[in-house]
Protein 1
Amino acid sequence: MIVKDYFLPESLDEAVTLLAERGPDLLVMAGGTIAMMRMNEGHLLPDQVMGLRRVGLDAITINGKLSIGATTTLSTLANNESVPMLSQAARSAASWSLRNMATVGGNLFARNPYGDVATALLALNADLRVINRNGERVLPLADFFAANRQLEPGELLADILVPPPTGQTVYHKFGRRAYNTPAVVTIAAHITRDGDSVTAASIALNGVAATPVRAIPAEKMLVGQPLNGETITAAAQAAAETVDPPSDAVASGWYRQRMVRVILERVLTQIMEQEQ
Ligand SMILES: Cc1cc2nc3c(=O)[nH]c(=O)nc-3n(C[C@H](O)[C@H](O)[C@H](O)COP(=O)(O)OP(=O)(O)OC[C@H]3O[C@@H](n4cnc5c(N)ncnc54)[C@H](O)[C@@H]3O)c2cc1C
C-alpha cells in the first residue's frame, strides 16, 4: 500500500474535522520519528496521513500550570527551564537531531523503553487536554497510560498540562551509555517534605512495563516518614519487588529489576541531601 493522501491542516479545528471525516484509517503523525520508522519497517501501511506540524500546538506557555503543546519538539522543551526536571528529561532522550523532530506529545505514545519525557510528566501529575470535533476533555496522564494509551476515535492530544512542582524533583535515566541510548530504567521522583516528614511522594518508573508506571507501594511507604537511609532502602526495595520488567535487547528483566532498587536509592538519597 502507498500513501495516497497526505494532509497538512493549518488549524486544530481543521485537523479534528479531517479525523472525524476520515476515521481511524487516517494516520496521525507529529514529528514522525516513531511513525516513519514503523512505516519503513512495514509494520504500518497507511494510505492516508495527517501531519500535525502546522496546527499551532508547538508552544509552551505558563498560566498557573505549564501548558506544553503536543507538537512542541523535545529540543524546545530541553531549552525551556520552567520545570528543570522536564528540560533534563528532554535532553536525555535520543540524539540532538532526533530531538529536533520528535515531539513531547509523541513521546507519550513511544513504546517501552522509550518515554523518557513521559516518565517525568507522570511524576509531575500531568494532565492531557484531548480534543475532538465536538469539544474537549482533560484526562490524567496516569489514566491514559492505564488505558494503554487509547484515545477515543476522533480525538487528538492538544496539550499537556503540568502543575508547578511543590517539592523537590530528581530525574535519573540509566542506560548502557551516557548519551543517545534507550533506558535500562528511568526514574523521576517528586517529593514534598514538611520539616523532616514526607507529605507527598510521586515516583515514576520507565523500562519496567508497557508504559511508564507509578511506584505506588514505595510512595505509600514514604508518606508520613522522614527521608533517611532506612526509609529510602525500604522504599527502593518495595519498588523493585512490585515490578516485573520485560527483557529486551537493552537489558534483561532481572537486571532492570535490580537497577530499579539501585537507581531509586540514589534518586531518593539525592533528594534527602538537597536543601529544601
Ligand atoms: C533512533 C531513535 C532513538 C530514540 N531514542 C529515544 C530516547 O532515548 N528516549 C525516548 O523517550 N524516546 C526515544 N525515541 C522515541 C521517539 O522518537 C520519541 O520519543 C518522540 O517523542 C516521538 O514523537 P514523534 O512526534 O516523532 O511521534 P510520531 O512518530 O509523530 O507519532 C507516533 C504516533 O503517536 C500518535 N500521536 C503523536 N502525536 C499525537 C497527537 N498530538 N494526538 C494524537 N496522537 C498522536 C500517533 O498515533 C502517531 O502515529 C527514539 C526514537 C528513535 C527513532
Note: The chain has three domains: 5-51, 60-162, 168-273.
Protein 2
Amino acid sequence: MALFSDPAVGIDDPMLRRAFGLAERGRGTASPNPLVGCVLVSDGAVVGEGFHAQAGGPHAEVVALEAAGDRARGAHAYVTLEPCTHFGKTPPCVDRMLSAGIAEVTIGMRDPNPEVSGCGAEALAAAGVTVNWAADPGPFETQNEAWLLRLRLGRPFVRVKVALTLDGRPALAARRRSKITGAGGRHVTMRLRSEATAIVVGASTVSVDDPELTVRDENDALAERSPRRIVLSRTSAPNPRACVFSADRGECVVVASDAASPAALEPLVRVGARVLTYAYRDGLSGALRAIAADGVNDVLVEAGPSLFTALWRDRFIDELVVVTAGGMSGNAGPPLFLGCADAEGQDLAPVLHPVETGIAQGDAVTVWRQLDQEPGLGKGSVG
Ligand SMILES: NC(=O)c1ccc[n+]([C@@H]2O[C@H](COP(=O)([O-])OP(=O)(O)OC[C@H]3O[C@@H](n4cnc5c(N)ncnc54)[C@H](OP(=O)(O)O)[C@@H]3O)[C@@H](O)[C@H]2O)c1
C-alpha cells in the first residue's frame, strides 16, 4: 500500500489503470480473496465496470457484465487478474464472459495458483477471444501482494505501525498510555486501519492503552466499516471489559495459545469475542497461521515493544510504518526493541530499507520494507 505515491503510475493502459483503481475499492473487505477490478469497453466507451467487494459476493467480471447487459456483446474486457475457470463460491467467470459475447480481454496478471494459472486465458483464447497481457504485471502483483504472500507462505502480510518519539521511544514511560504523535500520525493510523483487513494488538497493549481500534474521521465519527480487531496473547487473557470487546465496534477475535487457560478465555466468548487457538510451541508463526486460516490476507499490527521484538526476531515484518513526532521521551520511555543487538545475534546489517518517506502535518512518516522487495516508491506528504 503506497502512502505517498500513486501505485498505478506504471500502468500505461488507461483502461487497465481504471480497472486497477476499481480493484482498490475491495481493499480490506475482499480477503481472503484477491483484489480484482474489471472494465468493459465497447466502441470506445465504458459500458460496464465492477470490482470484487467480498468473498462469496460476485466477482468483478460478473459485476461489470451485469452492469453492461447486452452492451457486453463484442466488448473488450480489461481485468486486473486472470479470470477464473473453476467453481468456487460462484461459477467460473470465463463461462460468463463467453456467454456474454466478450471479444477481447486484456489481463493484468496471471492467477498464481499452479492448478489454474493460464487456464482462464487459454479457455478464452480457445473460444476465439483475443487475449492480451499487461506489458508489466508488477503493479498488479504489488496490489495483490498480501493475497500472493498468504497463498505462498500460509500467513498474512504483516504491516507494523509504530509511533515513536524523536529519540525512538514508543511510550513516555513503561506500561503507560502515551500520546506520542499529533494530527498527522492520527491521520496515517486511520488510513492504515481503514485499508486493513484486520488490526492486531498485543494483550498487554489492551490492558495498558485500552484502545478501541476503530476507524474515525477528522470529526471523530465512526467509519462505515470497522476492520476485524484481533488481540494476540500467549497465556494471558485480556480483560473482557476492555473497549476492544464493545459489541458495536465490529468483530473482535482473540488469538491465544493452547497454554492459555480455557476458563480465563470463557468470559471473552460471553462478551461476543471469537477465540482462535494455536500451539504454544509454534509461537508467532502459529498465531499468524491461525489468522490466515481464518480468512485474513493482511494485518496491521500496532505493536508495543514485546510484540515488535518478537515480530522482528522472527522476520515477520513485511512492511514497517514508523511515525515520528518531534518530542523527546528520555530514559523513562522503554526502547522499541527489547534485548541487545549483539547478544541476540542481530548485527547492524539492514534487514529493512526505506521505500517511502513523507510528512503528515507535524509528524514524519517512513515506510520500510524487506530488503529483497522492490524499492522505489516516492516521497510526498499527506494530511
Ligand atoms: N508507540 C506505539 O506505536 C505503540 C503501539 C502499541 C503499544 N504501545 C505501548 O507499548 C506498551 C505495551 O507494550 P508491551 O511490550 O507491554 O506489549 P505488546 O508488545 O503490545 O504486546 C505484548 C503482548 O502480546 C502477546 N504476545 C503474543 N505472542 C507473543 C510473542 N510471540 N511475543 C511477545 N508477545 C506476544 C503477549 O501475550 P502474553 O501476555 O500472553 O505473553 C503480550 O500480552 C504500552 O505502553 C503501549 O502504550 C506503543
Note: The longest strand covers residues 352-360.
Protein 3
Amino acid sequence: MNKVRAIALCVSFLMPILATASEGEAPQYVIENGKVDKGTYNGYRRFHGTCHACHGQDAAGSSFAPSLTESLKTMDYATFKKTVMEGREVKDASGAVNAMPPFANDKNVTKHLDDIYRYLTARANGGLGAGRPERIPK
Ligand code: HEC
C-alpha cells in the first residue's frame, strides 16, 4: 500500500470516531409536561443574569443582538461554545462594530455554559415557552 492510500484509510477510519466524540457531548434538556430539569432551569437563571441584556428577555432577541431561539435551531454545541468563549466582532456596511463579547474569563458563564445551552435549545427546539419555567418535581 502506498503512503497516500495508507493516510486516506487512516483518516476515513478516524473521522466517524472524532465526529461522534464531539457531537455526543452536546448537553440535553429534559421537558416533562412543560416542566424542566434542574440544569435547564439553572440555564434560564444564568441566561437572564448575563445574556438577556443584549439577547432579550426569554432569548427572543433585541435591537442589539439576534434571537437565540432562532440561532439555536441550527447551531451545534461546538459553535455555540466557541462563540460564547471567544466572542465575535462584525462590522456592518457603515463600519459600525456589532460585538458579541468574549466570556472565557467570566465564571458566571463558563461554569454554566452547558445549562445555558440546555435552556436555549429547549426554547429553540423543545417548545419551552417564555417566562420562568417550572421545575420537574423530585
Ligand atoms: C453586550 C451584548 C451581548 C451580550 C451581553 C451577549 N451577547 Fe451574544 N451576541 C451579541 C451580538 C451583537 C451578537 C451578534 C454578532 C454577529 O453579528 O455575528 C451575538 C451573537 C451571539 C451568538 C451567535 C448567534 C448567531 O446566530 O450566530 C450566540 C450563540 C450568543 N451571542 C450567545 C450569547 C450568550 C450565551 C450570552 C450570555 C453568556 C451572550 N451571547 C451575551 C451581543 C451580546
Note: DSSP finds seven helices and four strands in the chain.
